[in-house]
Every structure is written in structure tokens, then in C-alpha cells.
Amino acid sequence: MSASRAHGHVWLVGAGPGAPGLITVAGLEVLRNAEVVLYDRLAPPELLREAPAGATLIDAGKAAGNHAMTQDEINATLVEHARAGKRVVRLKGGDPYVFGRGGEEALALAEAGLTCTEIPGVTSAIAGLALAHIPITHRNVASSFVVVTGHEDPTKPETAVDWTRHARGGDTLVVLMGVGRLGAIAGALIEAGRDPSTPAALVHAAATPRQRVVTARLDEIARVALEAGIGAPSLLVVGEVVGLRPALEAAASPLAGKRVLITRTRAQASTLASAVQSEGGHPVVLPALELERRVDEPALHAAAEALRARAYRWVVFTSANGVDAGLEALRGEGLDARAFAGARILAIGDATARALLARGLVADLVPAEAVGEGVVEALVGAGMEGIEGARVLVLRAEGGRAVLLEGLRAAGATVDEVTLYVAAAPAEAPPEALALLRARQIDAVAFTSSSTVRNLLTVLGEDIEARAGLAAARVVSIGPATSETTRAAGLEVAREAEVHTVPGLVTALREALSATRQTAPREALSDARQTAPCEALGAVEEGPQR
Ligand code: SAH
């Protein structure tokens, strides 16, 4: 950038064990300001979307050709971009200094006279266990742990890993990169004195939707892993703590490890997506709604005049989109939030109230029931300041339910409606989400409005496989109107939210998915979606994907 900035800077950032949410706040911040990102295969791909649009993204696992970059090439690339004055983020799975060769990269930068900041990450060596409900230490069970590589640098002599020492070195033993040599490792540990009946586990692809866990005695873990087809990346865990897993797993959220299809506009999906993520679920966003601005100009113009004349007693917003679109449209009329000074504001629900708040407007009334009937009821209940003889402005989407306007008019109000946009189905669904549906790897679907149901079906069109995947998932709806539309579309509603909000929807998801766990007949679901009880060692438990 500026001539005075002779050199750039490198941040050596730990991306965490596999879920995008497990990067640190500091790591995310530098990633969002990066000019160059050099990333590893183990860094969650979703994180790359956090880099600025213009950033150069370099896949260190797959350089120009189809070969992995050598360590020297990686070091040279870091030096080159830092020398060119760039803000470079080196994004590595887990923690950069835990078997990540981060030290070599930092040394190369130091040798080149460049500067570097380490931002630690959550290492899979510890977090991978927690994600499988195995505490790495536990009072009276394990008071130490050892982390060791199962894949020593091949240029070192075979004796470089002292298995005799590791076998007794810690109560819990965690082996990274050992999945290809499980038999040899287990054998060496037993030979060195570890009890063959010690509980052991393999945790594959922790924190990702592909996570799988198998458990067995130490002397059987290699065979069990082979039979289950467990490959890299996996952690081998050996120690009595593995025995705590079934009890801890019983307390896990039914959302953990599940894929939940979210069908809103991309911008709106984020609250629900974070709520799903916060319980260990994996949101799959399939935007089934695209908002197309289509303002009823004459109605808008008339409403603007009436606002100027302070003619409205109430202004009603029925969605967060309506808030944004409404204020934007009014700006086109030369009005801003001050136009509502003489009026009271009703927001249909919490999300709408929050959207208003973001624009500095506090809703005067949020009905208990976030449906059209609730609005009428709340306004009638508001007494003098309520509805009788009032002029009311409703700002909303085309095709909204008639019950709102009819109810208000029946209660004695004069109602002006300004429609601002249409919610339409996007031209096509994102291929990843479609592929997951077709493969029946979506565990649950959350519908937040009737239009999300209709539009999802429009997007899926005649795709029979995808529709079958939808029918196989547990469908959860935000409220009665959405449930009705869902059923009319031939889908079964597994649960309807009692409270018509995102937290209410998450509660419904939990109930719907725990019902799957306990009562759904095996054959009704694809095998890999079953969560087998892990009562005994030797159990093979699979995540939501094979
Ligand atoms: N720096 C990384 C480790 C890199 S070595 C960290 O701190 O996590 C690569 C090995 O890490 C893999 O072979 C595997 O043993 C382990 N590993 C990394 N991510 C993993 C994950 N999500 N699940 C299971 N094992 C993982």
C-alpha cells in the first residue's frame, strides 16, 4: 500500500479443530483484515468466506498443480507476500504449533527479517476429545495426558518415538496422525506395559459434520477402526477417560452433529445458523427466499404524504425485511425515521423489533403472538391509543395474509397498506445443499415462514431425490400458518415451535431430533444417521454422515 510500509506482517493463526466457530476471536479478526491467506487442508473451508472479497487465497494443500506445496515452498510464499508489504494470514488447523510445522514457518520469517504474530488455536489434540464427549483429564481417573505423533518424520530413525516412555508417560494418551499405523502403535503400547483392556477411542473428523467415533479395548481398536473404515484425520485416545463417554454423551444436545437445513434469505439465516451451531449442530443454508424490491409507488407516495401530515396513529411492521425495505423506500420520498414521530410503532415479533432498534426506533408494542391475529388483538387491547377510529399504516411484503388488514378494519381502523417487496424463490439452489438433500444427509429442516416452504419446493422443482431427502428429514415449523403450508405441501411437521421465535424454533428442533434418537424406526432413516447407543466398548457410533 503506502511506500513507507516496507514490509508486511504474517499472522500465524490457529483455525481450530474443524468447525468454523472454533477459531478464536483474535484469529477471526486478523482473517477479516487479511490481504493474503495461505490455508491448510485441515482449516475449515467455511472460514475462507471470512476473508475480504479481494484477498488472495492460496491452498497450501494443493498448490498450482495438484500436489501439496512443500514446506520450503510454503515458507517462501509467506516470505514473498510479507516482503511485498501484505497482511498475510497463515491459517492452520488446530493450533499452529501442535504438529503444524508452524515453528518452521516462524523461523523462516525470522531469518528473512520479517515479523510474525502467533494467534493460538484450539488444538484437536485436546478439543477433539471434548467433541467426542471424552474429558482429557478427570478427577480420580486421569491427572495427566501425553500428546504424541504417530507419524514421525520418515527421515528420522524408527526409534524417534519412544513408545515405551509414552505408554507410561500420561494417564491419557492422544496420538495424532496415527490412523495408518494403529495396530503397530497399540501393540507397542501393550508391549510397553499398557493393559490390553484399556479403553480406547478413535475420533474422526472432529467438529465437522463427518465426525465419527469408534471405541474398543486397546487390543481391539485397530480391528474395529479398520472394520468401520476410519481414515485420517483421526485421533487415537487411550485411557480410562474413554469410559466416561457414554454417560457424558447422554447429556449432549440432540442437535449435536446434526445437519439442519435453514431456508431463509442468506442475510437472515445467520441468527438461526448461529443458534444451531451453538449446540454443536451444522447449519446448511439453502436460501429459499430472495427478496425482490417491488414498491407500490402510488401507495408509498400517499403514505409519505400522510406521514408528513402526522395522520397515522400506528405504523405496523410485520418483518425485519419490511423494516429495512420500508425505511429505504421512505428515504426515496425524502423521509427518515423522524416521519414516525407522531405515530406509535408496532412490531410483529422480536426479530422485527430488533431490526427497528438497529435503526434507532423502539417499538411501542410487540404482540404476544407473532401472527396477524395477534396484531389485531394487541391493538384492540391497547385501548384509547388502540384501533378504533385510528389510521394505520402497514408496511409489508406483497402477498401478506389478509387477516391482518381485515381484522384491523373490522375493529374500526382505516388501513393503508404499502407493499414493498416480493419474496420469491431463487433461480437455483446451491449445489452443496442440494447434494446433501439428495444423499439424505439432512437431519432436520427449519421453516420460518410459509413462503420459505413454498419457495423451497419451487427451488427443488421436479428433483425427486432432493424431495425424498426433504421428506426423510424432520421438519420443524415456526408457527401454525407455516405448519399448515408445510402439511398442504405434503410434508409431515415433526414439531411446531410453541414460541414463534428463533429460540422457540431451536427448542422445537431439539424435541424433533431427540424424538428421532429415541423412537424413529431404524429402517425409516438411512443407517448412518442412526446414533447407536454406546453402552459397551466395541460400539461403533456414527455421525450424521458416513
Ligand atoms: N495443528 C493441528 C494438528 C496437525 S497434525 C492441531 O493442533 O489440531 C494433523 C493431525 O491432527 C491429523 O492427522 C489428526 O490426527 C489430527 N486432527 C486434526 N484435526 C482433526 C480433527 N478435526 N479430527 C480428528 N483429528 C484431527
First-to-last CA distance:
47 Å
Number of domains: 4
Q: State the CATH superfamily name of the largest domain.
A: Tetrapyrrole methylase, C-terminal domain
Beta-strand level of the residues, as a percent range?
15-25%
Radius of gyration, in angstroms, nearest whole number: 28 Å
Strand tally is 22
CATH topology of the largest domain: Methyltransferase, Cobalt-precorrin-4 Transmethylase, Domain 2
Structural features, described:
Helix 2 (71-83) crosses helix 3 and helix 5 (163-169) crosses helix 6 (182-191). Residues 1-5 and 518-546 have low confidence and may be disordered. The chain folds into four domains: 9-122, Tetrapyrrole methylase, N-terminal domain (Cobalt-precorrin-4 Transmethylase, domain 1), CATH 3.40.1010; 126-252 and 526-541, Tetrapyrrole methylase, C-terminal domain (Methyltransferase, Cobalt-precorrin-4 Transmethylase, Domain 2, 2-Layer Sandwich), CATH 3.30.950; 259-289 and 426-514, Rossmann fold (3-Layer(aba) Sandwich); 293-423, 3-Layer(aba) Sandwich (Rossmann fold). It has a six-stranded mixed beta sheet, sandwiched between helices. The chain has a five-stranded parallel beta sheet with strand order 3-2-4-1-5, with helices on both faces. The chain has a five-stranded parallel beta sheet with strand order 12-11-19-20-21, with helices on both faces. With 546 residues, the chain is of the alpha/beta class. Bound molecules: S-adenosyl-L-homocysteine.
